[in-house]
Amino acid sequence: MAPAMWVWPDVCRCNDVVLFATISAVLIIVIAQTYTSSVRYPRNLPRIGRRPGQTGFSLATRWQYLVDCSSLYRDAYENYSKKGKTVLIPGLGARDEIILPGNAIRWALAQPEEILSSSEALVEINQTRWAFGNSSITSDLWHVGLFRTDLNRALETVCAGVNDELALALDTFFGVDADNWTEIDLLATMRMVVAQAGNRFIIGDSPEGLKLCRDQEFLRNNVAVFECFILNGGISGACPVLLRPLVGRMAAWPIWRRMAKFRRHIRLLYEERMRILRLQQQQDNNPGKATPRDFFQVMMQFAATYRTEDVNDFENMAARLCAANFGAMHQTSIQATNLLLNILGSDPEFDTIAVLRDEVARVIGPGGSPGHADHTGSSRAWTKAKVAAMVHTDSAARETLRINAFANRAIFRKVMVDGLTTEDGISLPKGSFVSFFSQPPNTDSEYYEEPLKFDPFRFSRSMNGAAGGDAANNKDPSAGEAGGPKYVSTSERYLSFGHGKHACPGRFLVDFELKMMVACILTRYDIKLPAAYQGRRPRGRWVAEAHLPPHGARIMVKRRRIVE
C-alpha cells in the first residue's frame, strides 16, 4: 500500500511531523485495541520477540513491522515456521497475525470454509465493506468465482484483441520515436499500459467498451481507484474493530468519489450490455448476432441467470466490475515493472534480452507480432500452447515473482469456530486470522542456490536437471512438473499465488499478459537502464509487509526501426 508521506499533502513531508504522527497513531491504536479486542490468544502461542509466557508485543517490535518487516519475517520464519511451530506476529496497526508453519498447509487446506474461511479473510484484508459501501458485494463474491470458473474459457478467444490493444498502448505510452531515447517512469507507465490492455479483456469486446479502453481519463481514474483501494484497506484494517465504521467510511471517501466518476464512465457500457441481454432473451439467444466475449459480458450473463437482483442494480454491477478490474490489473502492473527491471539488471552472462527475443521469434514468428498471418500464410495468433512454449520468458517471470512478490504471506483464513487446534497443539481463537509465509521460503538458501540473485533461467534450466533450478535441489514439489515448474504453478513450498482451490484465479490472465508484454516490448523497442543506475536495477521498497517496485524507477526506451 502507498506510504502516507506519498499520499497526503506536502505539509506531511516533514520527517519530524510524520514520525510524531506515526508514533502517536501506533500508541493510540494499540491502546484502543488492547481494550476493545475480543480475540484472546492462548499463552502457549509463541510471540515473536517475546519470552515464553509473555503476552502482547513491545512497541519496538510493532515499529519493526513498519520499518523493517523483511527481517522480522525472516526471524519468525527461521525460528518458528521452518521448525514446525506456530507463531504470533504483529500486523498493521493493532492487528496480530497467526503464522502457521509450512508443514501445516495440508491441514489448513483440508478445513472446510465454515471452519477456516477464505472469503471472510479476503473481506478483512481488503476492507471491501467500507470501500464499496455495499454489503451484498462482500457477502456474495460471485464475480470472484467467475474468475475461477470462466476466465480460462475467455482467455484465448479475446487475447488477439488484447494483443492489438497492447500494441496501441505501447505506441501511446512508450512512444514511437526511433531516433532518440526516451526516459519513462516505469511503474506509472506500466499501470497505464496494463489498464488499457487489461480493460480490453474485461470490457473491450463491444463498441462502448472499446472506447473506454482508449479513454485516458477513464484509465487514470481506474489507477486512482486502485491506489485508494489499497490505502483504504491499510487504514481501515489497522484500526480497532469498534472504530472501523467511522474510520472506514472516512478512509473510503476518496474511493467513493472516484467510484462515482467510474460509474459515470461506464453508464453507457452498462446500458449497451443490458440491451444485448434483452435481445438475447427476445430472439432466443439471438444466434444471428455476435455477443461480446469479454469478461464483463460473462458477468452480465451470469447475473441475468443467477443473480437477477444484481444485474438490474447498476451500482452493484459497477462495483463488481471495478473489483474485477482491480484483480486483473494491480498485480500485473507490479509484476511487469519488476520483470522489466530484472531483465535489464540481469547479469551479462545470461544475455537475457537476446535469449528472450530469440524465443519470441521462434514461438510466435519473425517479428514477434501475433494476431495475423505471416508471409507463409500461417497464423501467429496467441494460443495457450504458444504461451506455454515461452519457457524462458516463463522462467524469468517466475523468478521475478519469487524474489519481488508484492505479498509476502499467503493462504489467508479467518477462524470461524472455537476449539480448533493446530497440529502443534495451539488452540486458535475464534475471530483470529491465520496465514503462511511465502517470501521467506522463496529466498531460502536451503531450497534455492544464490536465493537473492535474479537468475532469469533458473526454472527453464530445471527441465534438463541443470544446477541452479528447483530440480537440482529437489526440494520444491512443483519441480517435478513436466518441463519444470511454470509461472502459474503453486506448491506447498511456492505460495506466491497461494495454493489449493483458493489459489489466485487471475494468475492465468497475468501469465498471458506478461508474455504478451515481453514479446511486444522486446521486439518493438530497445530498452536500457539510465546511465545513473550503472547497470543495476534499483532496489524495491518495503512498506510495512508490502514489497513494492522502486519508487520513480526509470528506464530508457527507443522504437526499433527494424523488427527482426
From TrEMBL:
**Highest taxon of the source?**
Eukaryota
Q: Which residues form a coiled coil?
A: none
What Gene Ontology terms describe what this protein does at the molecular function level?
A: heme binding; iron ion binding; monooxygenase activity; oxidoreductase activity, acting on paired donors, with incorporation or reduction of molecular oxygen
- Pfam families tied to this protein: p450
| Reported cofactor(s) | heme
The answer to whether UniProt assigns keyword Metal-binding to this entry is yes
**Family statement:** Belongs to the cytochrome P450 family.
Provide the protein name. Cytochrome P450
Instruction: State the species of origin.
Output: Purpureocillium takamizusanense
Taxon lineage: Eukaryota, Fungi, Dikarya, Ascomycota, Pezizomycotina
